[in-house]
Amino acid sequence: MPELTHLQTPLASPEATTRLAQRLAPRLVAGDCILLQGPIGAGKSHFARALIEARLAAQGLSEEVPSPTFTLVQTYGDGLAEIWHADLYRLNGPADIDELGLWEAFDSAICLVEWPDRLGAYAPQNALSLELAPTAKPGERMARLSYCAPVWHDRLKGLGLQDGD
Ligand SMILES: Nc1ncnc2c1ncn2[C@@H]1O[C@H](COP(=O)(O)OP(=O)(O)OP(=O)(O)O)[C@@H](O)[C@H]1O
Ligand SMILES: [Mg+2]
């Protein structure tokens, strides 16, 4: 198993989070998964919405991106890839994951997953973990990124991320 790489960057405002999502968006391909971690209100949906809107806008598309809090999953297509935005907070168990078709989506779509701890040991091994941690400064988050899959070296290159711990 390759070792875990940790990177981080402060996000001073919601707009900074939007910019990180916008820069990452065009680099993603089907089969990529981002596990969005952090407490309630950390900005997981904010990040996912910005990323999905950027993917759609790049293809001249625009769509409402509601939070999947109650539907568990919202799906989008930008013509290049299917995009799944999942919020597993209200997941009842692994049977729900089967029913949603999430296992297949991990292979075939770009997946953005809030509350991925609900997946237990079943979270995709090749995923990027992105934790948004509130800091003492209002409106600021520390983004902590970690991954094992070497493919993320390229995906994250040049984004101004620092070595994390
Ligand atoms: N630096 C920041 N990055 C992202 N959002 C921020 C930041 N600072 C403040 N916010 C605000 O925090 C809120 C984040 O809400 P959001 O719904 O994205 O949280 P969430 O992590 O998805 O919560 P939940 O666990 O309930 O789904 C938004 O109102 C956003 O404007
Ligand atoms: Mg959310």
Question: Can you describe this structure in just a few lines?
Answer:
27% of the residues lie in helices and 27% in strands. The chain has helices at residues 14-24, 44-58, 94-100, 102-108, 151-155; strands spanning 5-11, 33-37, 73-77, 82-87, 110-114, 128-134, 141-147, 162-163.
Strand content: 25-35%
C-alpha Rg (nearest Å):
15 Å
Shape: globular
Number of helices: 5
Spatial strand arrangement across the major sheet: 3-4-5-2-6-7-1-8
What is the number of strand segments?
8
Ligand catalogue: adenosine-5'-triphosphate, magnesium ion
The low-confidence runs, each spanning 5 or more residues with pLDDT under 50, are none
Main sheet record: 8 strands, mixed
Distance between the termini: 19 Å
Q: Give the class from helix and strand content and strand pairing.
A: alpha/beta
As a percent range, the share of helical residues equals 25-40%
User: N-to-C SSE series?
Assistant: EHEHEEHHEEEHE
Description:
- This protein is of the alpha/beta class and 165 residues long.
- The chain is built from five helices and eight strands; from the N terminus they run E-H-E-H-E-E-H-H-E-E-E-H-E.
- It has helices at 14-24, 44-58, 94-100, 102-108, 151-155, and strands at residues 5-11, 33-37, 73-77, 82-87, 110-114, 128-134, 141-147, 162-163.
- Strands 3-4-5-2-6-7-1-8 form an eight-stranded mixed β-sheet, with helices on both faces.
- Helix 1 (14-24) packs across helix 2.
- The protein is globular.
- Magnesium ion binds at residues 44-45, 67, 87, 114.
